[in-house]
Design a protein that fits this description.
alpha+beta, 2 strands
Length: 67
Amino acid sequence: MYKRILNALGEHEKKRISVLGLTFKPNTDDIRCAPSRFLMERLWQSGALVQAYDPMAMPAVQRAYPD
């Protein structure tokens, strides 16, 4: 997915990118090994600003990524 984003947006340093649906299984708050975590971390490494949301998982995401 990261390569698709890179192809679509080109350089994305300082660009805001939204990630919706953060868990690996619907209707849970479990983010362990979720693909969204790897995607968000890769986007942060490349300088993108990530806006993430999942109604079930927000407490777990905030614990995992307090910043």
